[in-house]
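testing teh design pipeline on a random one, pls ignore if ur not involved
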């Protein structure tokens, strides 16, 4: 299976991608057909030139490639000085002759919302490429053993799949009313290396691969003050392979609940029988180290199940539940999971529905980002530069929360972003009065039917600021998770978009561009004096520039249209 190229040649990008995908499909098929198989001689796949080349492209395409580890090497140093092929050839040689040594990770501190800090470990660029190659080989093998209740950091799955699973079980007639909000205390810092290596060895018996995994786990940390600390437990948050290793470790929890579900609660008549016998039904939904357990039963039964989870974590994984953060909540009171606030409410006609809306914490977070990007400290930037930084924040946030009852939240966020930009313009041009700002900016603004005219500076400026309009927002129902489908199985249908049957995906963002600058010199002015506006019509195939504004000083000859 080792399809190495000749010693002095490296495959092209497309050839490498196809070769790696073929390897992954074969590994996944073998693991699926032989559940007890322990793979040997897979280290050669890690050292394969195609695998290393694909690993480099994925690592270098990430923004983190600009961040250096303890060796101060970034993507720029490799591409401009050493060269990519010599860099990969040197890495490949060290892996094959056994001289490869994982360097310590560089510690970085990220503040948390509660005032505490989260410690990240930044590996060197060379170690990140090696970890990505390791992940490319191990992921298709362990994907077979992962359970449908796990949604975090897995190909073909995302947070909306977990939310759809929760929505499905809480909306059923025999609803799961009690929710155990689980939180593992310092999960990534307390991963026991011996337990993790035993779990990896259940599927892989290649000693070179096991030594490579162990080397990354025990690489150590260079702390902020320059000291060195050994890593006897935990996986570095920031490593490429850490999410996969964490899923392997926490799959013990998935296995425990899935076996009970498959043997005692499937098919549905078994769950009905359990309820008649006074026994609870429960369903686990996990996203990385965040998990909840939906319970169809009483609160006392949920409390007993919570104690069982704590005992399982302590006995098998040597972890503990956080007493302060682990709660038992009723669905009518609502809970927050993955940024969504999920709560059952009653309508006026007596119906009871479960709503998933953006949480207050998520809304406050994006509003804080917009406020920071449009504050007084950014007035030295041009309008185009501000729009280029605000646009991705709004579009990304709206794309994540579009699958839910987010119409009112989007409307409020659009109003907030609109007025933050108006205040930014007032900060940048303190001598401009509100009377001069209001006519061009507020005509058709948020107080006139909800229609907003985003700003754009100059003819060749960046994309218009997308403000979500309430009439454009459609609450979409995200379908449930793939239930065992894998991106490595060619016989499984691929996901073809998440939409309602027979419906096109509606445009989330309505773009109407008001050109606030001269298309000739880029000047930004306010009011109607000194301006000539032409071609105020919608864009068609024969009229590509529908709205052109010129300063009279730079206006061309009268248009012939």
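output:
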């Amino acid at each position: 299976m080792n399809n190495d190229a000749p010693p002095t040649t490296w495959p092209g990008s497309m050839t490498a991608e196809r070769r790696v995908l073929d390897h992954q499909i074969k590994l996944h098929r073998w693991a699926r057909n032989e559940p007890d198989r322990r793979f040997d001689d897979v280290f050669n796949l890690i050292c394969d030139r195609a695998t290393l080349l694909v690993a480099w492209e994925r690592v270098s395409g990430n923004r983190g490639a600009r961040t250096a580890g303890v060796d101060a090497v970034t993507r720029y140093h490799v591409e401009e000085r050493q060269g990519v092929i010599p860099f990969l050839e040197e890495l490949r040689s060290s892996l094959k002759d056994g001289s490869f040594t994982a360097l310590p990770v560089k510690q970085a501190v990220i503040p948390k919302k509660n005032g505490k800090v989260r410690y990240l470990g930044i590996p060197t660029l060379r170690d990140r490429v090696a970890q990505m190659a390791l992940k490319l080989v191990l992921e298709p093998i362990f994907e077979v053993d992962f359970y449908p209740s796990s949604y975090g950091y897995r190909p073909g799955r995302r947070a909306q799949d977990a939310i759809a699973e929760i929505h499905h079980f809480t909306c059923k007639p025999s609803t799961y009313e009690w929710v155990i909000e689980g939180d593992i205390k310092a999960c990534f810092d307390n991963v026991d290396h011996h337990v993790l290596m035993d779990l990896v060895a259940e599927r892989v018996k290649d000693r070179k691969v096991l030594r490579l995994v162990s080397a990354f786990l025990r690489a150590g940390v260079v702390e902020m003050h320059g000291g060195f600390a050994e890593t006897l437990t935990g996986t570095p948050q920031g490593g490429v392979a850490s999410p996969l290793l964490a899923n392997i470790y926490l799959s013990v929890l998935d296995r425990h609940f899935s076996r009970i579900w498959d043997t005692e609660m499937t098919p549905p008549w078994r769950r009905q029988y359990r309820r008649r016998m006074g026994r609870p039904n429960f369903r686990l939904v996990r996203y990385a180290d965040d998990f909840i357990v939906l319970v169809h039963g009483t609160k006392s039964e949920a409390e007993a199940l919570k104690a069982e989870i704590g005992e399982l974590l302590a006995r098998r994984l040597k972890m503990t539940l956080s007493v302060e953060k682990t709660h038992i909540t009723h669905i009518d009171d609502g809970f927050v999971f993955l940024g969504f606030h999920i709560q059952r409410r009653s309508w006026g006609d007596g119906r009871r529905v479960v709503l998933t809306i953006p949480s207050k914490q998520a809304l406050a977070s994006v509003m804080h980002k917009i406020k920071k990007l449009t504050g007084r400290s950014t007035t030295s930037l041009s309008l185009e530069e501000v729009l280029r930084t605000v646009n991705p924040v709004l579009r990304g946030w709206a794309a994540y929360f579009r699958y839910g009852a987010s119409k009112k939240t989007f409307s409020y966020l659009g109003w907030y972003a609109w007025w933050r930009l108006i205040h930014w313009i007032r900060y940048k041009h303190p001598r401009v009065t509100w009377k001069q700002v209001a006519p061009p900016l507020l005509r058709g603004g948020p107080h006139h039917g909800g229609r907003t005219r985003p700003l754009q500076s100059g003819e060749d400026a960046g994309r218009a600021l997308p403000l979500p309009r309430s009439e454009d927002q459609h609450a979409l129902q995200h379908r449930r998770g793939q239930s065992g489908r894998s991106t490595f199985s060619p016989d499984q249908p691929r996901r073809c978009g998440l939409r309602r049957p027979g419906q096109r995906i509606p445009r989330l963002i309505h773009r109407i561009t008001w050109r606030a600058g001269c298309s000739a010199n880029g000047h930004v002015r306010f009011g109607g004096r000194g301006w000539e506006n032409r071609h105020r019509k919608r864009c068609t195939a024969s009229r590509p520039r529908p709205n052109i504004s010129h300063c009279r000083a730079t206006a061309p000859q009268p248009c012939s249209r």
